[in-house]
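Running this now, will post back.
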Amino acid sequence: MTDTLSRTFSALADPTRRAILARLSAGEATVNELAEPFPMSLPAVSRHLKVLEEAGLITRGRTRQWRPCRLGAKPLEGVADWVATYRRFWDGGFDRLEEHLRTLTGGPGDA
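Update: finished.
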């Protein structure tokens, strides 16, 4: 069994699935509405939706004949938490770069 973070990253790895999530961030949509901008069959879009649903990134409701898809952002919290653990590394790198540039240009903070 794959852990939630791996499943989320796997689902996000495909640009079509990221585009679907971007569309759903504006509100719920039907499968046909989601499929409209893509040059692929409806079954292909449905397979992308299944991957997103299995990763918890979307949910599908049922209102009479209409099955709206909605963004399910909970797994993205795990991604944000994981990325945050590396923020210290990135910030430290930028701080060192800033200090190095000040040394080169003789800017403020140059000792």
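The chain is about 60% helix and 5% strand. More later if anyone needs it.
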